[in-house]
Amino acid sequence: MINLCGLAVSNYYSKIKLVLLEKGIEFKEEIVTPSQDAALLKRSPLGKIPFIETEQGNLSESQVILEYLEEVYPEQPLYPADNHQQAKCRELIQHLELNIELNARRLYTESFFGGTVSVETKDQVKDLLERGLKGLARLAKFSPYIAGNSYTAADCVAWSHFFAVRLATQKIYGVDMVAEYLPGVNEYMLLIETRPCVQKVIADRAAAMTQFLNG
């Protein structure tokens, strides 16, 4: 059985948990906090989460894990059968993570964890997010799903990251930048959140957040 390790408050953890649920893969969860502890570094090379433990060994980096799950458990595919559409799905994921979430992550210290982010950093991130979201608007279809008429891995990734990016930008800039640059994203998120697997992740994430905030 796969062991999913990390924290349910993490959007990358949510991404993998949602994929596991949507594909009907049996798994268990272990709460693991990122650190540079020697014991953790033996399980995750940079001490990061999430990672999974399998009978063959451990895997880190969420997109590597997603691709592994798709290949080893093909019964409930989350990528289109057509090669070009598969590539477009991966293009969306790459864009979401590298050009949007990775930039927004620089705001999380202040937006989620009570720290402080410099004005210079906020200005830089805002410019990068504007560019990234405008690019995503050219790729995303929302008809009704982000890659077209079928629910795919790109939706698992988009839903997980949009949640964090929307909260962060609202907190820092006073505006939901995702909604500002992606018309229709509110309806899209409501559609995704009708899925039972997504509702399970939402409930578990809320419980984990309550526990996290209460120490």
Topology:
Elements: E1 2-6, H1 11-22, E2 27-31, H2 38-41, E3 51-54, E4 57-60, H3 62-72, H4 83-104, H5 108-111, H6 119-139, H7 153-173, H8 177-181, H9 185-192, H10 196-213
Parallel strand pairs: 1-2
Antiparallel strand pairs: 1-3, 3-4
Helix pairs in contact: 1-3, 1-7, 1-10, 4-6, 4-7
Proportion of residues in extended strands: 5-15%
Helix content: 55-70%
> Order of SSEs, N→C?
EHEHEEHHHHHHHH
Total helical segments: 10
Shape: globular
Ends: how far apart? 30 Å
The secondary-structure class comes to alpha+beta
Q: Average pLDDT value? A: 96
Which labels suit this protein?
4-stranded mixed β-sheet, 4 strands, 59% helix, 215 residues, 10 helices, single chain, alpha+beta
Describe this protein's structure:
Helix content is 59%, strand content 8%. The chain contains ten helices and four strands. The chain has helices at 11-22, 38-41, 62-72, 83-104, 108-111, 119-139, 153-173, 177-181, 185-192, 196-213; strands at 2-6, 27-31, 51-54, 57-60. A four-stranded mixed β-sheet has the order 2-1-3-4, with helices on one face. Helix 1 packs parallel to helix 3 (62-72) and helix 1 (11-22) runs antiparallel to helix 10 (196-213). The mean pLDDT is 96.
